Amino acid sequence: MKQEQKRYSSDLSDQEWLEIRDNLEGKRDRYGRGRPRKYELREIVNAVMYLQKTGCQWRMLPKDLPPWGAVYNYIRAWKASGVWTEIHDALRDKVREQAGKEKSPSLGIMDTQSVKTTQKGGAEDMMQAKKSRAASELSSSIR
């Protein structure tokens, strides 16, 4: 394997790429068919990592990475087929084994303050909503 030169701090190292490569290669369709790839998978993942690290807009991806549309299509396909979950689970298992723990965690902790909910708040939130609507109606009647 040739040594890749990192362009961005978010690019995968050779070792990182080796860890996830098998989960990505050969995933054209379930029958193994499909068009030849136009972009290297490592470059697609590098673009995903760049987006995650910088938080830039899709269309602002640097020109030396694959086009944003191609990256987006790969992300959607990998999410739909469960590839991201496979990669996550494989890496989690490896880290746990290296730490001398069982592969699968036996306990999960969820912080209720950070869990999204559809439940509305108490009376104070309702009062705020009523005030907002009243202010909105007032401004629309002035126009």
Structure, described:
This protein is mainly alpha-helical. The protein has a domain at 14-98. The chain contains five helices and no strands.
Give a quick rundown of the structure.
This protein is mainly alpha-helical.
Name its key features.
single chain, 143 residues, mainly alpha, 5 helices, disordered C terminus
Write the layout of secondary structure elements.
Blueprint: H1 14-24, H2 41-54, H3 68-81, H4 83-98, H5 123-142
Helix pairs in contact: 1-4, 2-3
Mean pLDDT: 79
Poorly predicted ranges: 136-143
Which structural class do the helices and strands define?
Answer: mainly alpha
The amount of beta strand, in percent, is under 5%
How many helix segments?
A: 5
CA-atom Rg in angstroms: 23 Å
**End-to-end distance, in Å?**
68 Å
The residue fraction in helices comes out at 40-55%
Profile the largest sheet.
Answer: none
Oligomer: single chain
The SSE string, one letter per element, is HHHHH
> Which outline best applies?
globular
The number of distinct β-strands equals: 0
